[in-house]
Design goal:
Elements: E1 9-13, E2 19-22, H1 26-34, H2 36-44, H3 52-63, E3 69-73
Antiparallel strand pairs: 1-2, 1-3
The structure holds zinc ion.
Length: 74
């Protein structure tokens, strides 16, 4: 490990061991995970849709519903 700052971030499922890297910073990913239901509500009433990283993040949370999903970085 070289400890390069500003690495990549993503969601990881502790139950499946699966990781999805997303093109977004750590704080945004935490925000999405903690406010998932709010983001989905906004998406339903938005004609422009969500940013790609949000779509991908929500898809991952869907796939791992009920699992222990954490935000990871490297
Ligand atoms: Zn899972």
């Amino acid at each position: 490990m070289t400890g390069i700052p500003g690495g990549r971030h993503g969601f990881a499922c502790q139950d499946c061991g699966e990781v999805r890297w997303l093109n977004q910073g750590l704080l945004h990913l935490r925000w999405l995970r903690d406010r998932e239901h709010v983001v989905r509500e906004v998406a339903q009433h938005s004609s422009s849709g969500l940013d790609t990283w949000m779509d991908e993040g929500l898809a991952f949370l869907d796939e791992h519903r009920g699992h222990d999903v954490i935000v990871v970085s490297e």
